Amino acid sequence: MGGTVMVPPIVAPPAITLADIDFLYSHALYFPLEKQPNVLEASMKSPRTNRSSWYSKGLIFSIILITLALALLVTRGSSPESRASDSSAAAQASGANTTDPIRSTINITRFPHIPSAANESSVIVIGTVNSVLPARWTTADRRRPANPHTAGHTIFRPVIVDVEEYLKGENTRRTLQLDAWGGRIDDDVFEQLPDKLYEFQAGEQVVVFLKELEQGSLPFTVDGSSLWSVEEHYTITSDGQAQNYYQTLPLDELRATVQTALQP
Predict the structure, then answer these.
(1) How far apart are CA 134 and CA 255, in angstroms?
(2) How many Å apart are CA 230 and CA 155, to the nearest integer?
């Protein structure tokens, strides 16, 4: 049986550890035939052409599973900050001058899963973007580092969100400040494509899945206010749809999915 396998684009993964190998082995590479005696016995008794078709289907299925597992490994094992650091280190190794502009573009395709994002987030809110503050560096003084091509610092934009409703988290704060990774300062640019996870517009209504940045993170606060990292982001349309780069669904359905995922 022939066919075309559509393989989603992935980026180069980070260094693979023994834990990652175990993750791949347990999720994509383990097919215990001894637990499928009826399937195995039937295939061995069938004509050669049927056995060939069975093996072909299994091979295609294995390729799809392995591809998805590798893509999942990439998205769970690498943050924009770490991938930008890798890009900066590469630029430094190539002999980039400290005065040269830095342009770090991360191309990534994620596989969003609402129940997982709901459980991993500290709070989930519905709110309106009050403002997107000017881009700034993650240095202590928010100024351009002496050598931006060295690993460790990137550009981000603080985003102010007026909270209308908490879908998760007991919190009385009516305003939250988000850490929107990336941005442009003069000729220095950090961006993530085609994903729009960190793209916000003043006035738009959003659903955001957030984690509060831990002390020691860069940046940790802006003007004394704690920053929240964006784990997932949907924009609410005028007709009550929640949409992002990957999917569009009714806001009520998104709300129900979150509530179901958070049930004990």
Answers:
(1) 31
(2) 15
Which residue, chain included where needed, has tokens 């799809």? 64
In DSSP notation, 170-218 reads ----SEEEEEEE-EEETTEEEEEEE--TT---TT-EEEEEEEEPPTTSS
Adjacent-strand bridge partners of 124: 168, 209
pLDDT in tens, 195-233: 999 999 999 999 999 998 876 666 667 777 889 999 999
Half-sphere exposure of 257 (CA within 13 A, CB side): 13
**Higher-pLDDT residue of 82, 258:** 258
Is the pLDDT at 32 greater than 60? The verdict is: no
Closest CA to 166 of 34, 255, 68: 255
Q: How far is the C-alpha of 259 from the C-alpha of 262, rounded, in Å?
A: 5
- The type of residue at 71 is A
User: What's the pLDDT score for residue 108?
Assistant: 82
Q: How far apart are CA 136 and CA 188, in angstroms?
A: 11
Q: What is the Cα–Cα distance from 163 to 235, expressed in whole angstroms?
A: 14
What DSSP string runs through 54-102? HHHHHHHHHHHHHHHHHHHHHHHH--HHHHHHHHHHHHHHTT--TTS--
Average pLDDT over residues 48-72: 54
The β-bridge relationship of strands 205-212 and 225-236 is antiparallel
pLDDT value at position 81? Answer: 60
Contact predicate 102/88, CB 8 Å: yes
pTM of the model: 0.66
